[in-house]
């Protein structure tokens, strides 16, 4: 008997810590289904900080600029992130103190989607930033992530150098904003049920099992 299919669209960014934490929770929730459903993950772009310069921006400066957060607030936010990451086994030991432009990373992810390899590339990109502290706007880092994911590095380099899929990424971002998605991560179950924010493994498992009941 074939397991029922569930599609999980994940609107997220690369340098968003809650996106990394949320993905880990999704994978653990899916594992808890123990084969009761065939869950397909599809990643979609929503840049938190489009147009950052090549050297990026310090996280503390970004929080102060966007939210008026002072040093104490920034430290408290960092503590919450580290605690949530540790609980789910997400390696953030090398997390950079800077944010970087992620448009090219999203172009590479779109390409990976055309060959059924988004998940390994997404995880490789997150590891490059959070575990290794690398600049994910740097083409060499992006091609390295493609290599980590087992993808063709010559093709990855060509995608980046030739500006491929720029229009697709812009169109996808506009679509999701038009659907009211303004924060990441946002999960959408089978195009019908939106789940905002990084949720617990338990809540995600319940949502997936309810979807199986509704199907």
UniProtKB/TrEMBL annotation:
<feature type="domain" description="DSBA-like thioredoxin">
    <location>
        <begin position="8"/>
        <end position="208"/>
    </location>
</feature>
<dbReference type="InterPro" id="IPR001853">
    <property type="entry name" value="DSBA-like_thioredoxin_dom"/>
</dbReference>
<dbReference type="InterPro" id="IPR036249">
    <property type="entry name" value="Thioredoxin-like_sf"/>
</dbReference>
<dbReference type="Pfam" id="PF01323">
    <property type="entry name" value="DSBA"/>
</dbReference>
<protein>
    <submittedName>
        <fullName>DsbA family oxidoreductase</fullName>
    </submittedName>
</protein>
<dbReference type="GO" id="GO:0016491">
    <property type="term" value="F:oxidoreductase activity"/>
</dbReference>
């Amino acid at each position: 008997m074939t397991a029922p299919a569930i599609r999980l669209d994940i609107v997220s960014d690369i340098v968003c810590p809650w996106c990394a934490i949320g993905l880990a929770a999704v994978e653990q929730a899916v594992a808890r289904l123990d084969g009761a459903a065939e869950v397909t993950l599809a990643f979609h772009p929503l840049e938190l900080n489009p147009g950052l310069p090549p050297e990026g921006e310090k996280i503390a400066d970004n929080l102060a600029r966007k939210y008026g957060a002072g040093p104490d607030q920034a430290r408290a936010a960092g503590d919450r992130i580290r605690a949530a990451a540790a609980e789910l086994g997400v390696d953030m030991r090398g997390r950079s103190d800077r944010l970087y432009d992620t448009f090219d990373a999203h172009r590479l992810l779109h390409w990976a989607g055309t060959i059924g390899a988004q998940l390994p590339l997404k995880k490789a990109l997150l590891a490059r930033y959070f575990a290794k502290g690398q600049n994910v706007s740097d083409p060499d880092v992006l091609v390295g992530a493609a290599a980590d994911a087992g993808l063709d590095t010559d093709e990855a380099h060509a995608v980046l150098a030739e500006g491929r899929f720029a229009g697709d990424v812009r169109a996808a971002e506009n679509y999701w904003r038009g659907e009211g998605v303004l924060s990441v991560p946002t999960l959408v179950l089978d195009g019908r049920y939106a789940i905002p924010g990084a949720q617990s493994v338990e809540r995600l498992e319940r949502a997936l099992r309810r979807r199986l009941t509704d199907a």
